[in-house]
Amino acid sequence: MDTSGSGVPVFPAQQGTTVAVGAAGQVGRELVATGAVPVTRRDMDLLASPRDLRETALRLFASADTVVNVAAWTAVDAAEDPVNAAAVEGVNATAPGILAAAAAEVGARFLHVSTDYVFSGVPVRADRPWQVDDPVDPVNVYGVTKAAGEDAVRAHGGTVVRTAWVWSGPHEPGRDFVSTMADLAASGRDPLVVDDQTGRPTRAGDLAAGLMELSRLTGELPPTLHYTDSGEPVTWFGFAREVFRLLGHDPDRVGACASGDRLSPARRPAWSVLDLSDWCRLATAPPPWRDSLREGLSVAGG
Ligand SMILES: NC(=O)c1ccc[n+]([C@@H]2O[C@H](COP(=O)([O-])OP(=O)(O)OC[C@H]3O[C@@H](n4cnc5c(N)ncnc54)[C@H](OP(=O)(O)O)[C@@H]3O)[C@@H](O)[C@H]2O)c1
Q: Mind telling me which residue stretches traverse the membrane in this protein (predicted)?
């Protein structure tokens, strides 16, 4: 193994087939755009019986070198409704372990995307990003089920990649925060956005590129990694202001509010900043979120 003189391991590129489970979602679409083989709900329902799910997974993963699971129940507020409990548990907590086991059985690497919401949101020390091995302590059902899914994946030798604040942008209208803010800006409506949750946004395409890079690395991967775009942490309010500004609208049209002002069923962590140093030692450093936002909004300069 080459260490490029810096002690950082450099692995040779490896060509292989990457299968994306959850291919119709934000990150899944970007994975497919960069060459992954799509697996959608139509091909494999994660709520099938464990036996059927395993059999389908073994069939679909048979020629894969890497399986990336980006399927999840991501409706954080709806996850709090007891009516959805079995489905949320099935998709986020149970299915990932079955998929990871099937990947191990066919000899494929398994990458599983998880979330900052496994953390409490109260930093260990002020302004300290969450480390990969910090204890999880989720504050909502989505986070609890994602944390359980992480454990199941690691138990079968898979790698968990936590991310946060994923956005796609105006090319995927209505799917994410950035396209929603862009719509509001263009239609003259002035949003109120929470100013007490801090994190780092992640462009879906950046995360997909990072996952594809991981899929090509040879050698053992660590059990847990973090990937968000880089740069200084920001609140949702600050992020919304930047969308308005880059699109040529007055950022002062965005008003600030507190999480407590909103009657959301799910609590959300106040501090979501993930430490990226392990990722940066292993693979290409994520781009600054402001650069990705400018690019995603197709705005020069700014
Ligand atoms: N979005 C964020 O801000 C964010 C933040 C942190 C972490 N994450 C994590 O990042 C990953 C990707 O998120 P995303 O934003 O790309 O999610 P997304 O757009 O909501 O896509 C999730 C995909 O999962 C699929 N899915 C849900 N239930 C399924 C089932 N029973 N069987 C098969 N497929 C099913 C959905 O299929 P359909 O299209 O058919 O509904 C959808 O395509 C997830 O693991 C999520 O937890 C996301």
A: none
Q: Is the Cβ atom of 118 under 6 angstroms away from ligand 1?
A: no
From the number of C-beta atoms within 10 Å of its C-beta (0-12, 13-18, 19+), residue 183 rates as: middle
Residue 254 has pLDDT above 70, yes or no: yes
Distance, CA of 80 to CA of 103 (rounded, Å): 30
209-252: pLDDT as tens digits: 999 999 999 999 999 999 999 999 999 999 999 999 999 999 99
Host H or E run for residue 94: none
Neighbours of 248 (CB within 10 A): 10
Instruction: Give the residue whose CA is nearest to atom 48 of ligand 1.
Output: 166
Ligand 1 pocket test, candidate residues 53, 112, 146, 166, most atoms within 8 A of CB: 166
- The residue extents of the domains of the chain are 18-168+202-230+267-287
Its pTM surpasses 0.70: yes
Q: Give the whole-angstrom CA distance, residue 189 versus residue 31.
A: 33
274 lines ligand 1 (CB under 6 A): no
- pLDDT value of position 190: 97
Please, which residues have CB within 8 angstroms of residue 167's CB and are 6 or more apart in sequence? Answer: 26, 176, 177, 178, 179, 201, 202, 203, 204, 296
**Per-residue model confidence as pLDDT tens digits over 33-64:** 999 999 999 999 999 999 999 999 999 999 99
State which H helix or E strand residue 255 sits in.
strand 255-257
Contacts of residue 8, Cβ cutoff 8 Å, sequence gap at least 6: 281
- Show the DSSP H helices in 15-140 as ranges: 26-33, 50-60, 85-88, 95-106
Please tell me the CATH code under which domain 18-168+202-230+267-287 is placed: 3.40.50.720
Structure tokens at 88: 């949320």
From CA 239, how far away is CA 90, in angstroms rounded?
33
CA 276 to ligand 1 center in whole angstroms:
22
